[in-house]
Write a structure and sequence with these properties.
Number of strands: 9
Number of helices: 14
Mean pLDDT: 92
Bound molecules: zinc ion
Distance between the termini: 26 Å
Helix content: 25-40%
Structural class: alpha/beta
Oligomer: single chain
Radius of gyration: 21 Å
Length: 339
């Protein structure tokens, strides 16, 4: 079965910690960052043309004006420290379930700087090592990299080749023309996401608003996906809180005809309903006419025990399936067998 690629934006982090992080810190929305980062003092002598309180707009403007170089350095430091301080709550979050809803053929490409997805990966790895690859398209405060050996991992890990502690990777800050090629780790992520999107059967876009500072990024994703007319069998899934019409307009270049599912929450998405078998199940539903039972996936309020027992069943089947064989269908509706 082909890959499922998930593209994450800030809305996914908001969904993962709707009540704030472990210590009650609010999630990383780009609006209202001036208060969150206590930037009033830093910006009090700065004359901004933008009236926006969106950090991307403010950063872009400061960056373009050379007289504010020192302020930009301080702003970058505060952004890094703020995101670095966020911690996942102890109970399972949507990020844990998202990671466990995919397997090693799949990829999560995130635009987020916060460390929560990586923290979720670390704890999910204790449940199974059959997990998706994570690509941080704008860098991430939790990730480290050994440039010499092109090894990456959490920034407290060591490079398996030179045994040196990995160097924290840079964040790609929100300017209109980002240089995706400058940083070795980030350019590697873009090469990888390009390759995986090309061969993906499904794409899920989760909480990613494609802000104006990301025009280039969306262009690269679009280029990888290719013409929607060539994607008549594939399925695009969008999880967002905007209205459906706005979503369809935003992603019109990706979606062929009615081949999409739009939900305002993770649990009703293909990933939430059919964890670890989303591509298999959707393919069976639409191409083989095999109905699926959408009640057996993740639910709100699940404990770690609930999550573990759901995932464990699926992992046993994965282990027992030869690597050259497709995984058997798991979510087939009972009505199918009663026919
Ligand atoms: Zn190394």
């Amino acid at each position: 079965m082909r890959a499922h690629t998930v593209i994450l934006g800030a809305g996914a982090t908001m969904a993962a910690i709707p009540n704030g992080d472990k210590n009650g810190k609010k999630s990383a929305v780009m609006n209202g960052m001036i208060q969150k980062l206590a930037l009033d003092d830093l910006l009090k002598n700065v004359k901004l043309d933008t009236k926006s309180d969106n950090i991307e707009d403010i950063y872009s403007e400061l960056y373009a004006k050379t007289e504010y170089k020192a302020i930009v350095v301080e702003l970058e430091k505060r952004l890094y420290e703020y995101f670095d301080s966020l911690e996942l709550p102890d109970e399972p979050t949507i990020y844990d379930m998202l990671i466990l809803s995919l397997t090693s053929k799949d990829v999560i490409a995130t635009f987020n700087w916060d460390p929560l997805l990586i923290q979720a990966y670390v704890r999910c790895y204790k449940i199974t090592n059959n997990l998706p690859h994570i690509l941080c398209l704008h860098g991430n405060v939790a990730m480290g990299y050994c440039e010499e050996h092109r090894e990456f991992g959490t920034k407290d890990a060591i490079c398996p080749i030179c045994n040196e502690i990995l160097t924290p990777i840079k964040l790609l800050y929100p300017v209109k023309r980002k240089n995706y090629k400058d940083d070795d780790y980030i350019s590697g992520c873009w090469e990888a996401v390009d390759e995986v999107i090309k061969k993906s059967y499904m794409i899920t876009i989760f909480g990613y608003s494609a802000p104006s500072s990301d025009i280039e990024a969306v262009g690269l994703l679009k280029k990888a996906w290719g013409k929607k007319e060539d994607r008549q069998l594939e399925e695009v899934s969008v999880i967002d809180i905007i209205d459906e019409e706005e979503m369809l307009f935003k992603w019109k270049d990706f979606i062929y005809s009615h081949h999409y599912r739009y939900t305002n929450n993770f649990f009703d998405s293909y990933l939430g309903m059919f964890p670890r078998r989303s591509c298999e199940t959707v393919f069976a539903m639409y191409s083989l006419n095999v109905p699926a039972d959408n009640r057996r996936g993740f639910h709100r309020g699940m404990t770690w025990t609930d999550v573990y027992s759901l995932v464990d069943d699926l992992c046993v089947i994965e282990k027992n399936t030869p690597s050259d064989k497709n995984l058997p269908l798991y979510y087939t509706a009972k009505s199918f067998f009663d026919r």
